[in-house]
Amino acid sequence: MAVNKRNQNKRSNILVITEALLIAYMGYISQFILVQLGMTREVPIEKLVVNVGLLTASILVCSLSVGLYEAKLRETFRGIIRRIFVSVGLSYFLVEIISRAFFDNLAMHPYYLPSAVCSVIITLVVFRYFTNRLGLLGLGKIRIVVLGAGERASIIEKRMRRDVDRIGFELLGFVPIPGDNREDGVKNEKIVHVKVDENFQQFIADNDIEEIVIACDQRRGTLPIDVLFESRLRGIEVTDLLDFMERETGQIVVNLMYPSWVIYSNGFSSQNYLRDALDYSLNAILAFCIFFFVWPIMAITALIIYLDDGRRTGTPVFYRQERVGLNGKLFKIIKFRSMRPDAEKDGAKWASKNDDRVTRIGHFIRKYRIDELPQLLNVFKGEMSFIGPRPERPEFVEKLVREVPYYNQRHNVKPGLAGWAQLNYPYGASVEDSMEKLKFDLYYVKHQSLLLDILILIRTVEVVLFGKGR
């Protein structure tokens, strides 16, 4: 454990030094750029050194205070971005107060501090992305052991097979627990045969274990409460399988959920009251801005659809269809028609990736999401948001509510033009696919925030531009 502690401290020290150099460099380069743009004049070197040093020191202290250099920080990338904004924001006011109170003669041009702060935020966010997401410096990577080797534990083996799936942790192995369903359990992972008794603490210490994941099939009478209690007192993280999967995969494993986990979780209702209050205004403004740029594309698309088969068949260019919205309320979604007029002559069917009902122009506009553009009107009407679970048809919802547990919870938020599930899972053409997409939809419902919306929006733009629509 001592060796592990030294390694953690070494990684944290490297992180502090590296970020200090980045902050200092951005403080210098901000002044250089302002001078080159003619927005300020050159200043004596000692004046610049004092200001850069003060900015660097204050950001490091504030980052330390919000836990950004905590060796065992288990935070999502969005959480890290929030902490960076808070720490740099606090530093801004701290530097302003100190420089005005004690170094008034060394105060820089009014443009300097805002530009330096903005450049530092961008730099730190990009740097943390690579260090945390790509495992550079070993940051955020911890050693874990899984208690359980049965059916529940096998979800880790099945869903996290690739190295990229395990970038945040090093898995020592699975410890079988009495009551595990070994027949349907872990097959190809390392099984650690060790007794989970009073000697288990020595095993943890010898292997530098930092987190224990609880994934046994039977808890009552088999879970070693005393051992886990002692481990927690020693600073070892003890995490439920559902929380572990939610943290590492960005989805909620619906088929493994149990009532007590839901009761003690944050629930599936938004607690972000400011975001909720500004929801319609932000979506309407964004919809107007996008419509301003895309209306020529929409006009050309409508004309092509009309000339392709609309003129011949008399079928409308737009397609209106009933969907289930917020709190189960029905509304009419508006899209460019991408299928043949007789697409549903045999009743409602799931859409599939290579659907033979799609027209020639339909393949193109579906690939680049152009068929979704008329839904801007649904956004203006307040029926949809830009980001949220995709709205489903009532005929399918009735079936899915009966067959998929917790399916109705996805209606706790407005449906959206783009969603977390669409970025992580392909077209859903069955109840099984709906179950998989629901895991991502519930993750969004539970973690909805402005930062997550921005992340989804950016990734959706990438999907559209490179034609990787799902």
Automatic annotation (TrEMBL):
Topology in the lipid bilayer: Multi-pass membrane protein
NAD is among the record's keywords: no
Ranges where the Bacterial sugar transferase domain occurs: 283-465
Residues annotated as transmembrane: 12-36, 48-68, 80-99, 111-131, 284-307
Predominant place of localization: membrane
A Pfam family assignment: Bac_transf
UniProt entry keywords in alphabetical sequence: Membrane, Transferase, Transmembrane, Transmembrane helix
Domain of life: Bacteria
Cellular localization per UniProt: Membrane
Family: Belongs to the bacterial sugar transferase family.
NCBIfam families xrefs: EPS_sugtrans, EpsB_2
PANTHER family per the UniProt record, alphabetical: COLANIC BIOSYNTHESIS UDP-GLUCOSE LIPID CARRIER TRANSFERASE, UNDECAPRENYL-PHOSPHATE N-ACETYLGALACTOSAMINYL 1-PHOSPHATE TRANSFERASE-RELATED
Name this polypeptide is given: TIGR03013 family PEP-CTERM/XrtA system glycosyltransferase
Species assigned in the record: Alteromonas salexigens
